[in-house]
What we know:
By secondary structure, the chain is of the alpha/beta class. The protein folds into 3 domains: 4-163, 3-Layer(aba) Sandwich (Lysozyme-like), CATH 3.40.80; 183-232, no CATH class; 250-324, SH3 type barrels (Roll), CATH 2.30.30. Helices cover 27% and strands 20% of the residues. The strands form 5 sheets. It has a 6-stranded mixed sheet. The protein is globular, with a radius of gyration of 22 Å. Mean pLDDT is 85; it is low at 166-184.
Amino acid sequence: MVNIKKQLVSQEVINKKSFGKGNKKKYVTVHQTANTNPGANAQAHANLQSNMNSRDASWHYQADDKVIIQSFDDDIMCWAATDGRGPGNTESIHIELCINSDGDYAKTIDNGATLVRHLLDKYNLDISRVKQHRDWYNKDCPAQLRAGYKGITWTDFLNKVEGVQEKENFGSSGSSSNSKPAAKDTNSIVDYLKSKGIDSSFSNREKLAKQHGINDYEGSEEQNTLLLKKLQSGAKPTEQSKPKPKPKKKYVQLPETSSSWRVYPTNKAPVKGNEKGFLNPKKFGGLEYEVLGNPQKDVYTIKTSDFGKVNIYAAKSTGAKIVSK
Ligand SMILES: [Zn+2]
């Protein structure tokens, strides 16, 4: 049986290595540590975080073959997804699975699955909310699961998560232990859609929900039941499986090679000396913002959480890229 040991970091670490409170907790993201050294276990990683990691990185939990240790409250927005203020960092709980060569790899994976199950149940999330670091950023992580190391693939991992029952010794605080996992109702709607040959992925269910008047679909038990009822009653979706191409939006991408990028007030010329502050693309492995305006050649209006609406200079020569998607 696995318990969660708490070794929460100091407020100073929270201040310096995270975005602080406000995590929306919509996802659980899985990582693997990329450190095979003997002794690079959960305790070592927890200590690394407690002692102010020299890297600008943080994550909520680390698990090895023996123990799960929590470093940050779930409510904190950790720096683990490499997507800046994107949903990976601001809406997900992050767990690191150790791959230390002196650990039992398969056992670590089992402990990780148990932890993920626990978090899904705690926040009433379905299996589609389990993400890889790779889902947020182009990085091969969790590398071993992605590669099927020791015969355990990502799908195997998800199956383990679905198979793990909530253990009664979880939730040391005693709360939410009787909250029913939504898996059953998720399964029934998934089964229903599969039986009709309809895409049962979360994103398609979200689309179907919208077409049937269920807004803000989150995959909750209630919404799944309602959606299933509507579908079974024969209510025709208005335009099933004919997704309209979304109008493309433009984004400006700042390269991770730069650690300071000037931002200018929108009412001043974007020249040195007028800057309001700096962005740090390097810190986040590059940054990306939606282009809200293009007031003059190579000058783009963006919105940042620190400075609000600002202009940046992003000519091709700066290494910045403008992409449509
Ligand atoms: Zn990762």
